[in-house]
Amino acid sequence: MSSSDSTFEGSDKKESDNSSASNYECNICFDVARDAVVSMCGHLFCWPCIHRWMTARSGRMTCPVCKADINEDKFIPLYGRNTTDQQDPRKKVPPRPQGQRQESENTNGGGFNLGENFSMSFGIGAFPFGVFSTFNVPDRQGHYGHGHTHGPAPNQDEQFLSKVFLYVAVFFIFWLILA
Amino acid sequence: MSNIALTRIQREFKEVIKSDEVKNCQIKLEPFEDNFTHLKGEIIGPPDTPYQGGKYTLDIVIPETYPFNPPKVKFLTKIWHPNISSQTGAICLDILKDQWAAAMTLRTVLLSLQALMSAAEPDDPQDAVVATQFKQHPEIFRSTASFWAYVYAEAPRNEKMKEYEEKLKQLQEMGFHEKNSRITALSSKNWDLQAAMEFLLP
After folding, report:
1. Could you tell me which Pfam families the record lists for this protein (chain B) (predicted)?
2. Domain end marker among A86, A101, A116
3. Which of A11, A159, B54, B131 could disulfide-link B45, Cβ–Cβ 3.0 to 4.6 Å?
């Protein structure tokens, strides 16, 4: 809300010595954000402030800046350098949401490490082991069957789809064997 | 007042003082007392409206739970507007109720009120009499609103006002001495002298 040129006088207790500091002010208390979190719509808040906003009146789960839907689970914490946020007293409010990390896809490389798809199918039984691997390998490269039609879909979706197709294929093979 | 409310009001205050709207004399904000819980706002009637040139004073009370709850704002200057009570100055504006958002400020509230003066919402009225007139007799509404602006908000006169002053004088001669109730009666009855008189009789 605060415009970029709004600087605060030196009498302020926070040393907001230049205008860029106001870019890191909480949109609720207008102070430099403590336990900073950012919403999916990109707005910065103190975690205690936004938590109080979400609980102040029931059913008001909209961003205080842009009124986009917000959700307690979808805030991203911001960790600056040298933050000692473990020591913050946050007993009155639930802890700030955890950052969510996903391993980069590319680290798997070419190798024979076919990832989660594989281990999940083991659970069904060791019998069709050979069959699985033949499905699995082309799958990951996106050349198998229907996966093709989805073109440049995001990697996660592709993975999910390939899992679904794999299970359908497994089921189909079982059915063939049993019939 | 809680700490967060106080520090925020102080910051907002600085922001308003430096804003372009204050420099252009569109809005004003000053504390009633030193503790920033009770403030006085002023907005100028926007151009191309019946309120043009009027000065409207607002009473602003900052609740303990600010900014999680909206400030309580009402007009101290009497105004003829569908969304503002002609009697009490109470305002019907969504952002002062359930549509309040914590990132809004006193500056944006004052600007929103100015916008409300330019664009009334007669389907969501605060003053049903005014809203009915707004919809059924827009011409009378406009001249009534500018008459109120002239009488209460120091807006400039126009030629229509002579006729209205004449009717007020006639009512006064009939023995109705209270000026505000004469104005309200005539305004509510679309400046029909007979109807206004019946309205005023006990």
Report:
1. UBA_7, UQ_con
2. A101
3. B54
